[in-house]
Amino acid sequence: MTDLLTWFSNPARRQPLLRILVAAQVLYVLGVAGAGYATAALGEHVVLATTPIDPRDLLYGDFVRLRYTIGENPLSLWRGAEPPRRRQGVFMLLAPGADSLSVPVGVYDRAPRPGPNQAVLRAWVTNVYRNSFALRFNLERYYVPEGSGLRLEKASRLHPLRVHVSIAPWGQARIARVEEPRRGKEKK
Prior knowledge:
Blueprint: H1 4-8, H2 11-42, E1 44-53, E2 56-57, E3 61-68, E4 72-74, E5 89-96, E6 102-108, E7 119-128, E8 132-136, E9 141-143, H3 149-155, E10 161-167, E11 173-179
Antiparallel strand pairs: 1-3, 1-10, 2-3, 3-9, 4-8, 5-6, 5-7, 7-8, 10-11
């Protein structure tokens, strides 16, 4: 039996393999893009309150690092058999609250079945304290046009930003848009 390099040196054998590899790469890129569009189109839309921090990065340009109000939770919201632990993947059940902002109903170690007007947001435990625990949602970074990061930070000092998030049925979440707080009757 000939060795592998001699087998691949024949162009008739190499060409089908190359076509399969190129097709796999194209399908992967289309799948990633399609998942993003499907999340926006098929996802449950929720609105979260947040405060931006760290609005500038020299390597990546302007972005807003978001700290969600639902990121800090009392242990009374925990619905798991065991206490939460750091780096644990969890599921937050959200329901509409005051001013159309979503509020947590409970945090589960397994995906709960959402009821009407409820959504499940995937999260990870970052810290566990005596009476509370902190979560991260992988939605903490939002890139903005050059020069607008500081404007968003200043606008949110009195009122939190409203972040519109789409959550796909398979659990993927993405930020649809960030809404600045309205100041009285002024126009944006």
